[in-house]
Amino acid sequence: MPPAALALALRMWGRMHGLVALEIYGHLRPQSQDPAGLFHLEMLDLVRSLGL
């Protein structure tokens, strides 16, 4: 895998994994009344950052 592709895959995985882990362990609830909405917005931002 080219280094740029690996970096992109790790960035996407890290961001998604981090958000899921924060929600699973209850760390998003004190920060947001709508963790699912926050996750959705973060995924939209990730897709936009990729130019998709």
Overview of this structure, please?
The chain has two helices and no strands. The protein has helices at residues 3-24, 35-49. The longest helix has 22 residues, at 3-24. The protein is elongated. The mean pLDDT is 88.
Concise synopsis of the structure shown:
The protein has 52 residues and is mainly α. It is built from 2 helices and no strands.
Offer a few descriptive terms:
mainly alpha; 52 residues; elongated; single chain
Q: Which class do the helix and strand fractions yield?
A: mainly alpha
- According to DSSP, the number of beta strands is 0
Largest sheet: none
* Fraction of residues in helix: over 70%
* Proportion in β-strands: under 5%
Rg estimate, integer Å: 13 Å
- The topology string of helices and strands comes to HH
Total of DSSP H or I helical runs spanning 4+ residues: 2
Distance between the termini: 21 Å
Flag low-confidence runs.
none
Dominant shape: elongated
* Arithmetic mean pLDDT: 88
